[in-house]
Task: structure prediction
Amino acid sequence: QVQLVESGGGLVQAGGSLRLSCAASGRTSSTYAMGWHRQAPGREREFVAAISRSGSTHYADSVKDRFTISRDNAKNTMYLQLNSLKPEDTAVYYCTAGSNWPAASAYWGQGTQVTVTS
Result:
């Protein structure tokens, strides 16, 4: 079993930046790919980005060139740097982990709210 805890969400104006963190724990957490998904009000959850244990990355087209995913395997922590934020980025952001690529979605955290105001 893998436990995932997100932090770093908040309220930001359009054009601003946030950094989300995800701390992973569990016996095999370091072996999995990790990722971020999000769910906006009234919409289905969608894939945002993923990173393999070796550092390969994959992004949704909507966030490419604005968001950057990274991980520190020694700390079992993953990050998502969100730049040039838009109101449509408002959502609950979920940390995920798993062996499926690029979704990495076998395990889910509780989520952290990101709200972007215009």
In short: The chain has no helices and eleven strands.
